Structures are given as C-alpha cells and as structure tokens.
C-alpha cells in the first residue's frame, strides 16, 4: 500500500515537472518569496519601509542619476544585524540631493538640487560634521533604476519591500482559510444532519456577502493595520474551502476503507484526520493556489481604498493609489510597474493551480 501511494505521488510530480508554465511559475514564486524575505538586502534604499524621501527629485524617470550628500547625525541608534536584514535600517542621517559642492576654509559649501533648470539654495556646513573621513565618502552618485515616486522615494526599493505584503498575505490568508474551511467542511460532510444544516447556513450567508464588503467590515472592526488585513482576508476565503471539503467528504465517507476503520473501532476524529482528509487533499491544494491569487488581489484592492497596509508601509496596491492619476500626466510607469507586479504574481499562482490540477487528475 505504501508503494502504491509513493508511486502516485511520484507520478503527479513527474506530470507537474512536464508542465513548463507550472514549473516556470513555481520558480518565479520562489524568486519573489526570496525577494520578500530579504527585501532590505536587495533594496538600494535599506531604510525602514524604504521611506527615504527627497521631495526635490520627485517623480523622476527610470535611470535618473543624482549626486547625494549624506550628513551624518549625532544621534546614533544601536541595531543588530538581524533587525537590519529583516526590518530595515533605522537611520537618522540626512540625505540631500545636490547639484554642486566644494570645500573652503573648513566648510562644505553645497547647492541643493532643483529641477526644471532652476538654481537651488546654496548652503554651508562645517566639515567637523564629517569626522575622521574624507568628504568624498559622504558624496556619492545615486541611480534610481525605476525612478522615484511622488515623494522622491526610490521606486525600486518600494517595489521590493512592497512584495513582502503581497506575498505573505497569500500564505497567512490561505493558512487561515484552510484551518477554518477544512474543519467546518469535515464536520458538515462527515456528520451531516443538523451540523451540516447549520454550517451550510453559515457558509451561504457568508457567501452571499460581496467579498470586498465583508473584508472592509472585518477590517474596520479589527482596525486598520498589517495583521488585521491578513486576518480579514483569511476569514472571507474559508467558505470556498469548506464547500469543497464537504463535498469530498460526503463522496468518500461511505468508501470501504472508511467502513473498515469504523469496524475496527476507530474514533470519528481519527477517521477524518488519518483516513479521509489525506485522500481528498488534491482539490483542496488546487483551490488553495487560486486563493493565493485572490488574497493578493483583495489586499491590493484594500490598499487602493486606503484601508489596507497603512503608510509609510510599502504596498503595491497603495502605490497604485498614490500614482494612478500620473497615468494621464505623462508618467504612467509609476502606476504600471506595481500593477504589472501584481498581475505577474497573480498569474504565477493561477498557472501553478492549473498545473497542480492537471498533475493530480488521475484520469489523465
């Protein structure tokens, strides 16, 4: 029996490997996952939430270059390496875009950058603010590969850090939906009767409410925030899992192996967990992949409406909200880049779901 099970798993894995788009999408999702976890390592702006603002260089095109002067702060913040890697650098240094600078009589004289051909303000600062180092160590040319947003923040860094919310909301929401959906669906399908009637009534009522409105209501009840959105999205997606599990349990609970388990005196909990659920997880896995994509879209919609991740946190949906009007102002990339990121990640999960459906289909 063990050999049979292993051979079926091996066969499904081989069928999945033959699906080019499924394997490609899986690799893309893994890539985005690595970027999400180590976003601050890859981001040019490693400050918390990639929130280093330079209003003088707002809305610049991709590839924009500027000379950046960093003025060290007298306030030092102790931060360990782990905190820097996963939560960003807490920096109190001041970054100033400059068009020209020179040193004279122990002072640094610099001209702040001004766009549209204007001349910036000329300022002077003592070189004592830069102890024991050359001034050239604090003046570097900075390139914004994706340009800057309307606040002068590095768009590439915001994209990388914003991937964390869109990626992890899929895992958290699907995890919550699986726990609730599998539990409720198993109870309804296995025991039937009044338990089934009550659970199906709850499922139908929940299903009748538009998903976005239900998420908004739950978010407002729990409060605006990072984890509140994750929980709210997860609490609205369990009904689909519950209906699938209920139908699968009803179809297999009269099978011979379940009847044999009852005859051996096994309890209902053991029969459900050890015998029924392992044999019905194929469609649940497929619907979970689709729920990943749905969770990303719902979170993006919430952030666009302003009730998702709150500023200064980076979120792809919030980035579209901040810049959608730039589409008609000649700078559509500010909204299109995060939009393409959402589209590509959602498409990857949908293709993975299709590949899993084909691989787990015993009729093929």
UniProtKB/TrEMBL annotation:
PROSITE patterns on file: ABC_TM1
Domain of life: Bacteria
Segments traversing the membrane: 20-43, 165-191, 198-220, 226-245, 280-298, 333-356
GO biological process: transmembrane transport
Topology in membrane: Multi-pass membrane protein
All residue ranges annotated as the ABC transmembrane type-1 domain in the record: 163-353
Keyword Transit peptide among record annotations: no
Family (UniProt): Belongs to the binding-protein-dependent transport system permease family.
Name of the protein this chain belongs to: ABC transporter permease
Originating organism: Aestuariibaculum marinum
């Amino acid at each position: 029996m063990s050999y049979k099970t292993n051979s079926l798993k091996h066969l499904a894995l081989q069928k999945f490997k033959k699906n080019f788009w499924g394997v490609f999408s899986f690799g893309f999702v893994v890539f985005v996952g690595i970027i999400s976890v180590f976003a601050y390592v890859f981001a040019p702006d490693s400050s918390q939430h990639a929130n280093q603002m330079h209003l003088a260089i707002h809305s610049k095109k991709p590839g924009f270059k500027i000379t950046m002067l960093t003025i060290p702060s007298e306030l030092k913040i102790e931060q360990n390496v782990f905190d820097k890697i996963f939560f960003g650098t807490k920096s109190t240094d001041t970054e100033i875009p400059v068009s020209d600078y020179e040193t004279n009589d122990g002072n640094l004289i610099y001209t702040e950058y001004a766009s549209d051909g204007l001349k910036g303000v000329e300022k002077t600062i003592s070189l004592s603010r830069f102890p024991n180092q050359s001034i050239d160590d604090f003046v570097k040319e900075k390139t914004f590969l994706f340009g800057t947003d309307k606040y002068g923040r590095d768009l590439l860094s915001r994209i990388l850090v914003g991937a964390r919310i869109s990626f992890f909301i899929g895992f958290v929401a699907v995890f919550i939906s699986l726990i609730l959906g599998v539990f409720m669906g198993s109870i309804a399908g296995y025991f039937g009767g009044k338990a089934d009637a009550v659970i199906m009534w709850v499922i139908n009522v929940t299903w009748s409410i538009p998903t976005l409105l239900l998420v908004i209501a739950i978010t407002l009840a729990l409060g605006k925030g990072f984890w509140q959105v994750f929980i709210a999205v997860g609490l609205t997606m369990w009904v689909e899992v519950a209906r699938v599990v209920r139908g699968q349990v009803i179809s297999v609970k009269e099978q011979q192996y379940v009847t044999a388990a009852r005859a051996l005196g096994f309890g209902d909990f053991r029969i459900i967990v050890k015998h029924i659920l392992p044999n019905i997880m194929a469609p649940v896995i497929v619907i979970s992949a689709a729920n990943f994509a749905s969770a990303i879209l719902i979170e993006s919609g919430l952030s666009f409406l302003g009730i998702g991740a709150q500023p200064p946190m980076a979120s792809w949906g919030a980035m579209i909200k901040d810049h959608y009007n730039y589409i008609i102002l000649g700078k559509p990339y500010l909204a299109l880049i995060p939009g393409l990121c959402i589209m590509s990640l959602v498409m990857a999960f949908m293709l993975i779901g299709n590949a899993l459906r084909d691989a787990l289909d015993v009729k093929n």
